[in-house]
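Incident review: delayed structure delivery

Summary: a single-chain prediction request sat in the queue longer than the usual turnaround. Root cause was a stuck worker, restarted by the on-call engineer. No data loss occurred. The affected request and its eventual output are reproduced below so the record is complete for anyone auditing the incident later.

Affected input:
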Amino acid sequence: MEGATSMLTTALSNVSTVFNQAVTMITGNEIAMVFVGIPIIGAGIGLFHRLIRH
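Output delivered after worker restart:
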């Protein structure tokens, strides 16, 4: 059981590291921010419209 816990902790640490590196890359690159930001803004607008309609 201890080995499984260690593997899970390592996996979560690796995911966290990759996520942090991706965020750092995106925030440092204006073109990447556009490609990531536009879908997020679109999703927010869509969610806002759904909340208003219902």
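Verification: The CA atoms of residues 29 and 38 lie 14 Å apart.
Action items: add queue-age alerting; document worker restart procedure.
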